[in-house]
Amino acid sequence: MYLVIAEKPSVSQALAKVLGADRKEDGYLSGPDCVVSWCLGHLAEYAPPETYDSRYQKWNFADLPILPEDWQLTVKQEKKGQYTVLKKLLNRKDLEYVINACDAGREGELIFRRVYELSGSRLPVKRLWISSMEEKAIREGLTHLKEGSVYANVCAASVCRAKADWLIGINATRAFTTKYHKRMTVGRVQTPTLAMLVDRQEKIQQFVKETYYRVALEKDCFCAVSEDIKEKAEAVALAEKCRGKAAVISHMETTRKRISPPKLYDLTTLQREANRVFGYTAQETLKELQELYEAKLVTYPRTDSQYLTEDMEQTALEIVELLSEQFPFLADIAVGKDTGRIISNQKVSDHHALLPTKEAFRQEAQKLSGKQKDLFGLIGQRMAQAVSGECIQEETAVTVLCEGHEFRLKGKKTIQPGFREIESAFRKSVQKKASMDSEKETAPLPDDLYEGMEFSELSVKVSPHDTVPPKAYTEDTFLAAMEAAGSQDFEKETEKKGLGTPATRASMIEKLVASGYAERKGKQILPTAGGRELISVLPDYLKSASMTAEWENKLLLMEKGELEADCFLQEIEKLMETMMDGCRSIPEEELYSFQSKECVGNCPLCGAPVHEGKMNFYCSSRDCSFSLWKENRYLSGMRKQINRKMAAELLEHGRTHVKDLYSRKTGKTFAADLLMKMEEKRVSFCLEFPKKNK
Hints:
The chain is α+β, with helices and mostly antiparallel strands. It folds into 5 domains: 2-144, Rossmann fold, CATH 3.40.50.140; 162-205 and 472-589, Topoisomerase I, domain 2; 211-260 and 392-466, Distorted Sandwich (Topoisomerase I, domain 3); 279-388, Topoisomerase I, domain 4 (Orthogonal Bundle); 601-688, no CATH class. Strand 2 and strand 3 form a beta hairpin. The radius of gyration is 33 Å and the shape is flat.
């Protein structure tokens, strides 16, 4: 008997069907020789700071940095039931080994490893590593199981990534929140990603429009244009000089350009295309793609490769043969079969490029949702393009001379459409529901143009033009920027560049929006005022795309066994010490720069500023529920309300001396210290009486 653990129930059911585990139990499926269960995604996570020391319940700068020596895991409350099931299964005496069948990647390793370690299991671990949920792929994967230790480096990289996120997120968020008296959420990847948005927005806002001019010579057959001219008077003078004069073609050059078909999709390029064509967010695309994968219609989605391995050539050819049957827009097009250009063992890491599966052509596409049909169509047409012929174009550059001044025009003519015929057919098939940003066509030039050809009676025009600011990021261009971030600081052969991974970029954008640091306006993604404020006070190293991209590259080196985990984490811890030193040196006048209201004190729960309201003293953070009510049940019987002075002392010292408390028993007033305590995030009070001198 053996145990199989997958990431999700739907994947477990697909595995169980192949393994013959068809008996439903509480939290798992069982068969003659195996048990199949699931993790529900991340069941466990690193424990919050207060788990290590109760003093961390309050956010105090003096307690930072928090650097756990023995990292502790905790199970999410809503998933404790499934964890209990897994813990029992992982410690069953009748099981010989456990198969880690979580998604084949860094996160899948982390999900399994955390549950395995928490359970205290001693079962030997084997690894199922597949790129498709088709039955054939599952059977082949089960036949070629590897020892779990083979993926020890991948697991180490996933653990280091998670620890780095925790260390930077916890320490930086608490440090800058307590220093600036305003909730400031900082993340290892989130912050440099936000910095890119802010930088682009600042360039747009600081852009100063400049006007330039062009002079055009027009004839029925063409329009030749001058270079850009800064001064209007100069452009007008040139136009007057050429008006009524003859012009001659002084030079013509025609070059033949061969345009190679596009590569297959990896996750990021598909997310970009889906945003550009259909307006889908990266998260929407990933969600629908995951469902297509679990339904066995496409291969593993979280891939960073655009190639296939050599052993997949026959499979690729078989899929190509089926494309025309599945996609009506390919019916009258001869799809190529040049699979050689999409095959490269060296350019495939954990997973090959996205493909439709052979199983997909046996199922009814009508059952798919609208978004799933769109994405499936994109993947299918891209494969058809990738194996088809190159596009051949002739580009002609013409120089026209008039009164000693050069004017230029260009033309383009398609000799062989190749893969572009597929692109055009797909565009037409979706044009009613999509906005295809097709390449701007350059019209062909007349065939009868030749060097030395003269023209007279030309129309001469002067036209003004304005320089344009950079465009705001769309999800498409933002994903591209994240992928390329920091690449200029790497050697060309560096394999891993950019912010995050294909699997995490979508969630990073969603986090920025959810945190209120970014917002969507149509297709655009813009930083909010809060996002710009945050970036304005953070040090460059926390905003650096280059540094974050370098960390991603080091995690990849760790996966390959070329970097020790301790070295990576020591760098992160050293960075935390640098950050603390920097925070200590922030000028005093800057610390209250974001307070629109006078601060009464700092919140005992989160460290954010506490402001005075009409009825209470409240925490300024929207995520915190702390409040000191001026009139409360405990003090009302003593005819006392909390005033501003009392609130400030309670927040700073946890106590305040009150001279005029009323006693119903004696009918007199008395003095005592009012003590404030926090019990499960709720405020409670008690009195302490000063000791009398004997």
